[in-house]
Amino acid sequence: MDMTLWHNPRCSKSRQALALLEDGGHAPRVRLYLATPPTEAEITDVIDRLKITPRDLIRRGEKLYRDLGLNEADDAALIIAMATHPILIERPVLLNGDKAVIGRPPEAVLTLV
User: Of 99, 98, 102, nearest to 89 (Cα)?
Assistant: First the structure.
């Protein structure tokens, strides 16, 4: 399968997830999503694959989340915020086929290989 990891190399959980995949002999395509942000459509697709709500994919602990006043935002506004400010996307996210998983804990990525 064609695996893609939405990866932030500055995040320890993201680094751990990538290492687990590589140690297991897997070579996912790495998308540095901060440098190449996903579109609103891509974020919506990932949310659908994860079977979660947009709020479950957003990093609510980020200062930017508070600064943008997203606590009361609707789903559409959250998706726009993540596309505009990808630092708000929970990480890492592994995509494999029609499935996805958030690597929290990092070992969760192993469920898709």
Answer: 102
